[in-house]
Amino acid sequence: MPDSTFFTTMPPRTVSAIAAELGAEVIRGGEVIVSAVAPLSGKDGGAIAFMGDRKFLDALKTTSAACVIVHPSMVEHAPETAAVIASRQPQADWARTSMMLHAPRRLERSIPVSEAAEDDSVVVEPGVVIGEGARIGRGSHIGANTVIGPGVQIGRDCAIGSNASLYFCLLGDRVKLYSGVRIGEAGFGAVVSRDGPLDIPQLGRVIIQDNVTIGANSCVDRGAFDDTVIGENTKIDNLVMIGHNCIIGRNNLMAANTGISGSVTTGDHVIFGGKAGIGDHINIGEGARVAAGAGVLADVPAGETWSGYPARPLRQFLRETVWLSKQVAQRKGTKEPQA
Asked: Which residues are tagged catalytic?
């Protein structure tokens, strides 16, 4: 279930009512009541899930969801305990269902500083907007024109720069966010539908642990369903992008222009050079290093340094670079002289 601090859950609906609005077919369980959306692996027995790819077949067979949306060819694999909706676009219809059942809380009014601040030690510069239910810990400083969304929690002794925006997030103590930082915006997720690309609702949060620093104009997207997490004491440079559902370990270092795609997991003490790019669903082991400009498309083992595009172990990259240089030099040396 999405966090009620940040998302409003609509009244439950029957499977038949949902299918009718989607224009999909109820196979069984039309009377079942659904109150939330969840992934197949979720434990919410009153939720609706979907399977969009055969690689999740085992998860479908063992899901505890009250209802599943599946392609007609997959109906026979759905568990007998679940209601079933048949759809030729299961992920798109799950996204539409999500919008029927959940809505992000909007910043409809600003509350006074006294209502949000833990005590008088909180400093709020001119132009700051604070949403209902937000809290700011003792000794924190909020820069001019920053927006703090409904329900956002800011720990003690934090420093938030000017023109930042914080939504759907929880911050620990001594967090530093420089000017222009964007925390908790919707992650990039779209699915092809009969009406064209459809945004997939992002129902997770951002958790920023103690002593994290995030540089100017960097972005950290909230999770699609689970949370995006930045581990304690991680230091992030300017103009860095961290996608939804990422789990960043403790004591990571990220130089400017690094881009982390969705659902990436890093261990502790990982270092990223400038303009490093990481593909989605990649695991980077503890103590690994990614060189500047590297494009990582495979898991990086703990303790290794990878470079190049596509990135590979540093020694391999250097050997291949030297070999290629020699080949080019030899070809140049064997060319016949021009007349």
From this structure: 244
Rounded to 5°, angle at Cα 315 from 314 and 319: 120
Is the distance from CB of 258 to CB of 240 less than 8 angstroms? yes
Residue 23's contacts (CB-CB under 8 Å, 6 or more residues apart) are: none
Residue 53 pLDDT grade (very low, low, confident, very high; cuts 50, 70, 90): confident
Q: What is the DSSP string of 204-256?
A: --EEE-TT-EE-TT-EEEPPSSS-EEE-TT-EE-TT-EE-TT-EE-TT-EE-T
Q: What is the pLDDT of residue 334?
A: 63
> Which structure tokens are listed for 246?
């990422």
pLDDT (mean) for 118-122: 97
Task: Give the pairing type, strands 36-37 and 47-50.
Answer: parallel
Tell me, what's the pLDDT at 78?
Answer: 94
Percent of the chain, pLDDT > 70? 98
For the entire predicted model, the pTM comes to 0.91
